[in-house]
Write a structure and sequence with these properties.
Strand order of the largest sheet: 9-15-12-13-14-11-10
Radius of gyration: 26 Å
Structural class: alpha+beta
Number of helices: 5
Helix content: 10-25%
Shape: elongated
Length: about 375
């Protein structure tokens, strides 16, 4: 039999055994497993004895195979059952593949997180829950790594409102209303001004300076919230210092130690020189902005998706500063200046850079970025524009 289990997490597989020479399931009196009967191999390495021998499930002709966390640290776990004494059960096998970790056979994607949000109606307050879920799902079904910052929404109804700006600042930070925001958008007047202020805040590492990091963690500033998992599901962007130009999703947060666990692992580990900014996925409720529910709803929907593209080498071979896309083909020159681009797969997965220039060249959109990428983006890797 074959099944999937989460990488590095102890688990149980229940399976029947067939009595030797017949077609009946083996009961407790038919087989007594001993050392050597059940062998396990991790990623086709040399086989060894399973840590815990299988046991009959009370009241059933089925057997419980227990796997330790260490035995689940592989892409593929192959188990063979061969009765080493006088054969009382037929030979059998169990094959497990893992998910949910960078070293697993199937790396868990942001779609898994997105679907968990979509299944919780409390994430989309208001009467139009089904419509909100449908709209967000339609925009994110094709993504394997999604962020939540797009500021093209219609904000004509928001004009010179300092209170609305303060509430939006706190929403972006995931901070409770009534506290002092870190990012200052001043008054919300136009889309361009608000987007520019927000991008400047992110590039400056608006939250502060990290205390350190490891392969898959970053220790946030001591002034961050002490509430466990308050930063979970947020995007942390490394703006400057060691490990700059990376962005990862926070999958767990310890409010005492300020340690945020991220996915996927860092390419370069942050340290106490790393400035960072955090932004949420945008599933909050802004209520009304200057008395306009429509404006708030439009802005929330905009926060829930970002333009996605694919690198295309068919007409131009990418360099470390210039590449083309065949699915973002906006005709207006400089349309995407000065947004931020985040690569979501391939050789640049997690790398972020500023868009310095954009033009439609032939049938493709051509992007110039700064700083230079560590290597030219490979053909067909994906990205999002923040």
């Amino acid at each position: 039999m074959e099944a999937q289990r989460k990488y590095g997490v102890a688990t149980v597989v229940n399976a029947p055994m067939i009595k030797a020479g017949v077609i009946d399931f083996a009961a407790s009196g038919d087989w007594t497993p001993v050392t050597g009967d059940v062998l396990i191999s991790l990623d086709e390495a040399a086989a060894g004895n399973i840590a815990t021998l299988p046991a009959i499930i009370s009241g059933m002709n089925a057997w419980k195979f227990a796997f330790s966390a260490a035995e689940m640290q592989a892409k593929r776990i192959t188990v063979t059952i061969v009765d080493s004494a006088t054969k009382t059960v037929e030979d059998s096998a169990i094959i497990l593949t893992t998910y949910g970790h960078a070293s697993a056979e199937h790396v868990e994607t942001i779609n898994d997180f997105r679907d968990s949000i979509l299944s919780d109606s409390t994430a989309f307050p208001g009467a139009n829950v089904d419509a909100a879920i449908t709209a967000v799902k339609a925009k994110t079904d094709s993504l394997t790594f999604s962020t939540a910052l797009q500021l093209d929404s219609n904000m004509l109804a928001i004009s010179s409102d300092g209170t609305a700006a303060d509430n939006l600042e706190l929403f972006i930070e995931g901070t409770a209303l009534g506290t002092s925001p870190k990012v200052d958008l001043h008054e919300i007047k136009t889309v361009g001004e608000s987007a520019s202020n927000l991008m400047s805040w992110m590039r400056a590492g608006g939250n502060g300076t990290a205390q350190g990091g490891s392969t898959n963690t970053i220790t946030l500033a001591a002034t961050e919230t002490s509430t466990n998992n308050a930063a979970k599901s947020m995007l942390v962007c490394l703006a400057s210092g060691t490990a700059a130009n990376q962005a990862r999703i926070i999958v767990a947060y310890d409010g005492v130690s300020k340690v945020a666990t991220v996915s996927p692992d860092w390419e370069v580990i942050p340290d106490n020189t790393t400035k960072y900014a955090t932004v949420p996925f945008g599933q909050g409720d802004l209520g009304m902005i200057r008395g306009s529910l429509a404006a708030a709803t439009s802005f929330q929907k905009a926060l829930a998706s970002s333009p996605t593209g694919t690198v295309d080498h068919s007409a131009f071979t990418a360099t470390t500063t210039i590449f083309e896309s065949d699915d973002i083909t906006t005709a207006t020159a400089d349309h995407w200046n000065p947004r931020i681009i985040l690569f979501t797969s391939g050789n640049l997965d997690g790398f972020v850079a500023d868009i310095a220039d954009y033009s439609l060249t032939g049938a493709n959109g051509r992007f110039t970025v700064s700083p230079a990428m560590p290597s030219a983006p490979a053909d067909n890797i994906t990205f999002v524009i923040l």
